[in-house]
Every structure is written in C-alpha cells, then in structure tokens.
TrEMBL record:
Subunit and interaction comment: Homodimer.
UniProt keyword list: Activator, Cytoplasm, DNA-binding, Manganese, Repressor, Transcription, Transcription regulation
KW GTP-binding (keyword) present: no
Gene: mntR
Protein's recorded name: Transcriptional regulator MntR
Organism annotation: Billgrantia antri
Domain HTH dtxR-type: 38-98
Domain of life of the native organism: Bacteria
Gene3D superfamilies, per the entry: Iron dependent repressor, metal binding and dimerisation domain, Winged helix-like DNA-binding domain superfamily/Winged helix DNA-binding domain
Known role: In the presence of manganese, represses expression of mntH and mntS. Up-regulates expression of mntP.
Entries under SMART domains matching the protein: HTH_DTXR
Record localization: Cytoplasm
Length: 160
C-alpha cells in the first residue's frame, strides 16, 4: 500500500492536533460522556416513534427484536424512560411518547437523517451508512450537523 499526501495518520498530525489544550481536551471528553448518557434514551424514543408511525403501535417485543436485546432489557429501559417523562403506557397496551419524548424523537430522527444523508453523499454504501449513522448521530455538534447538511445538499444539486 502506498502513502498518498492525503493519508491521515498519527505521524502526519501536528503536535497541537495530538494533544489539545487541557480545557479543550476536557470539553471534548465531557461532550462524549454527555452523548453516551443520552444515546440509549434517544435510540429508544426514536424507535418507538418509528414503530408508532409505521406500525401504529410500539410493543416491547418489537423493540426487543429491533434493538437485538432481551425483553427484560427493554422493560428496564422503558421504566427509566417513564421516570424521565419520555414514555407512557397503559396495561396491555403499547408504549406512547409524551410531548417531551416526541420532541426528543424528532430531534434524534433529524440528526440521524442528516448524518445518513451526509454519509451517502460521500459515497458510503447504504448498508454501511445506516450502521455508522446510528452511532455518529449522538456524537456530532450542531455546527458539524449544519456543515454535513450543507455538503449533502450541495452534492445532491451537483448530481441532479
């Protein structure tokens, strides 16, 4: 494999890129910790919203199947979502999103769509873009999302 001038490897980064100032470094790690805290919750409310939209109901069994987790895991997470005021349910009925849950789902869905559109505009295959977008959507700033969206739209215009 040959080295091209565009290859980014650790030895090609400048010293400042490798170790930013401590306050910036701390902000980077804080942002990642915060994203990890909300990541699972966002995934659940986004899936519940999708199930309600496309199937008319969001049952724990469907969530477990689509998330690849056990019913017990879903039950534990749904209990947490209820405590946070994101989800409600009635006995023997499916799950429902509260206004707060709907707002979170809409925001998460929008972030996901932007990242997915961006990856596709870069030429990433649909399958890989879907997998990568699922994790990336939680870890990008609004500034980065805005740039991704602008790039994808410009790419679409060029391709049209």
């Amino acid at each position: 494999m040959t080295d091209s001038p565009n290859d980014v490897t650790p030895d090609r980064l400048c010293k400042a890129d490798a170790l930013p100032p401590s306050d910036q470094h701390a902000q980077q790690y804080a942002a990642v910790r915060n994203a990890h805290e909300t990541e699972l919750l966002e995934d659940y409310v986004e899936l519940i919203a999708d199930l309600l939209e496309h199937q008319g109901e969001a049952r724990a069994t469907d969530i477990a199947a689509r998330m690849g987790v056990s019913q017990a895991t879903v039950s534990k997470t749904v209990t947490r979502l209820k405590a946070l005021g994101l989800v409600s349910s009635k006995p023997y009925r499916s799950l429902f999103l509260t206004e707060k849950g709907e707002a979170m789902a809409a925001m998460s869905n929008q972030r996901h769509a932007i990242v997915l559109q961006f990856l596709r505009a870069l030429g990433v295959s649909d399958r890989t873009a879907r997998i990568d977008a699922e994790g990336m959507e939680h870890h990008v700033s609004q500034e980065t999302l805005d740039v991704m969206q602008r790039f994808a739209r410009e790419q679409e215009r060029r391709d049209a």
